Amino acid sequence: MAPLPDPRQNWLLAALGDAEWARLAPHLQPVMLALGQVLYDPGTTPSHVVFPSTAIVSLLYVMENGASAEIAVVGNEGLVGISLFMGGHSTSSQAVVQAAGEGFRLPAAMLMEEFNRGGAVLHLLLRYTQALITQMAQTSVCNRHHALDQQLCRWLLLTLDRLRSTEVVMTQDLLSTILGVRRASISDAAGQLQRDGVVRYERGRISVLDRPALERRSCECYAVVKKEYDRLLPDIEAT
């Protein structure tokens, strides 16, 4: 029999104190998140927040003409749906599953009740939000000023950190949507990494063979984001 999913694979849930855990745990619902699944669209108010455990979710900004680009990635370090407790309720971004896996849903009302209590949960969520905003800002700068191969390396490193794996399963179409470029450009950038022995690139799958080389080829944006998460969430560790 397969083991039951563990909510505390998610760093934020793992960081809850005993009292907060006792209040929230009965309301956590395990969910399977499929590759390409849309969790919410721009302008909507999510009914639940999602705490990924083994899945990864991309937050995308979608233009009027349908073009889009990733502004942040959320995995087992965070949650999807910060607009609920930041006061805006609805969101301008789209949330799409970029790596299939498990997660846990929590009714929005339950999170808001806990947030409004103040104390540890409020401070935890605000620190996480600050780290997420840093990632959004750095991604914007990266997309504007750095070459596609550097952006791809940054994206791979952020994704691998959240997967705890050396392999990413990803369709070319979804990757081109995430990075906001043509499929052919993705093939060229990934192909060069493969020729240099950094990754093995197959249709729908990227395996990292040399992580130190990947880090050297990335721009500084990966290190900036990682440093901020480590600074703001130093006491969080998934079980």
TrEMBL record:
Its transmembrane ranges are none
* Domain of life, per lineage: Bacteria
Return the InterPro entries for the record.
Answer: cNMP-bd_dom, cNMP-bd_dom_sf, Env_Response_Regulators, HTH_CRP, RmlC-like_jellyroll, WH_DNA-bd_sf
Q: Where is the Cyclic nucleotide-binding domain?
A: 12-130
* The keyword Transmembrane helix is assigned to this record: no
Q: Which Pfam families match?
A: HTH_Crp_2 (PF13545)
The protein depicted here goes by the name Crp/Fnr family transcriptional regulator
Keywords assigned: DNA-binding, Transcription, Transcription regulation
Gene3D superfamilies xref list: Jelly Rolls (2.60.120.10)
